[in-house]
Amino acid sequence: MRKLLLPTLIIIAASLLLIRIFYLQVINDTFKLKSENNAIKIQYDYPERGYIFDRNGKLLVSNQASYDIMVIPREIKNIDTLEFCGLLNIEKEDFIKRVAKAKVYSPRLPSVFLSQLNKSEFAAFQEKIRKFEGFYFQKRSLRDYDVDFGANIFGFITQVNERLIAKNPYYNSGDLIGKQGVEESYEEILRGIKGVKYIQKDKYNRQIGSYKEGKYDTIAVQGEDINLTIDAEIQRYGEQLMVNKRGGIVAIEPRTGEILALVTAPSYDPSILVGRQRSKNYTLLYYDSIAKPLYDRGLLAEYPPGSPFKILTGLVALQEGVIDEQTTFVCHHGFSYARGRFMACHGYGPHQLNNGIYNSCNTYFASAYMKTINKYPKPADAVDVWANHLKSFGLGDFMGYDLPTGKRGNVPDSKTYKKIYPNGGWRSTTIVSNAIGQGEVLMTPIQLSNMIATVANEGYYYTPHIIKKIKGGTIDKKFTTKHVTSIDKKYFKPVIQGLFDVYNYGTASSLRVQGIDICGKTGTAENFAKIGGKRVQLKDHSIFVAFAPKDNPKIAIAIMVENGGYGATIAGPIASLMIEKYLRKKITRVDLEKRVLGISLRDQYAKLGGMEAAAAIESSPKDSLAIVKKETTKVKVDTTKKIN
Fold first, then answer.
1. Penicillin-binding protein dimerisation domain spans which residues (predicted)?
2. Does 615 or 368 have the greater pLDDT score?
3. Residue 255 and residue 454: Cα distance in Å, rounded?
4. Domains, the chain, ordered by start
5. I want to staple 254 with a disulfide (CB 3.0 to 4.6 A). Which of 19, 290, 453, 535 is the partner?
6. Which uninterrupted H or E stretch holds 260?
7. Whole-angstrom Cα distance, residue 230 to residue 243?
8. How many CB atoms sit inside 10 A of residue 402's CB?
9. Distance of CA 580 to the CA centre of its chain
């Protein structure tokens, strides 16, 4: 039996090998197609990307025709290089470098020699392309922007890199792909499907017709159109209000989680990242390390939330039963919470929940927070209970929205304080600054907006998202899944009344819009930065959160203006204006509009940039030239077309 085993295995293996060879060579001739690669030219037909519309059907992004010059290095024969370079206005050295790069990719496969020719360049070269063997045109479509805003929302289109080509077989050299914004998030939906044609060539490399009569050819399928949740008008208006300022605005429809506006400032005209100048303009934007126009502050910037965080402090204290609506704390222009420790406050006298909210009393909320922490024998257990309540609002983690970038923010818990105080000894008085949105708490503008939307809904929210409709498709179910907080619904009503009274009697009384019941909360967050290794206090951030109408709210909004000062100075007026613009499609508070449009913080930012530059030069004088170059870059970007 053992003597038969080896011959049997050999016979079986040989039989399987013969069967496989027969299948590949006779039955399945797709591999024959690959083996005949030298006699076949592959042509791709690139579909148009799907169009992008706003929530009301307004066209935001469409397409325009573009042409790439492709090269197959091994097919280049006896061409007049000087004439070629003259037609395309390039240097001979550039020609040599581009051909050499194409050879590295593949001598026999096509790659992009020169991308994104406009119509006049295409027309001039088209007449003489027959003289240049090895070169041909590849038609593509580039983005055509019908608006000059929303760059951070759309993202941009760029060529794939070699790493992605190796990873994803769909893409070839010269293919375009969406980066950042919805172009990246919905790339597979927007890009469509490439068509492929196989052209037979004879031994003289001449085309003689379709291979196998087009048996393997496929037709291009256009990308699907999408509707965003964005309202184009308030997006445009928000960017206009943020000119000469830095920060973010995020507006959400509370009952659905749909993002109505996502503003980052400064921004830029998305059209400058289209065409032959795309790479140059992107480089200028990328290296502007001072204004950071490519940095989406609405999603990425983590700030101390300031006084709007008092809303959560009050809700958690109510839920934990350490206060009720009538609980009273007396304020003496501040709160002495430990020996030598004093938290200043502009309030005075007895404060309960309602006037504690509309007067933004530090004493009231610091006291409520300490009672929450002191409820439990161990502060570590207490701070974890507190943190879990906050996390039920979607804080301290990525929110799961459908944009490719974001930050967690920070909700400190017992692990946080064990790291900060490894020897223990911390208690409620140590971490009381959390009560007023300072301390270790950090939130992004989109988290702030979702927080106030959750309050407007009296305790639930839907994951914020920017996709409203996909033609021929459905949106992810996670965007229609309700998330309920750990705070009982009954505790939201008195807090909402306090937020309403912020506009009636409190810190936003000058920002009322007649006929619209707005609930809101001003905020002024202390702002520190490390400059030259030193912790420096800068001008406070201006913060505001709001929703309207009070009953059946249709919009919730958060505004963060860096170095803007008091919340009612800049952020508050922007909130009132954005709310009225969305609900009424017009502005009656023209006084507020004029004030906001007239505010420029450029001098403030220039001063900060100068401090950073001076610190860098002091620490490393040899880098001073690089800093000057960065400043110069910003000036160049400003003059490219538009940068807010």
1. 46-210
2. 368
3. 9
4. 40-228 (3.90.1310.10), 233-616 (3.40.710.10)
5. 453
6. strand 258-265
7. 20
8. 18
9. 25
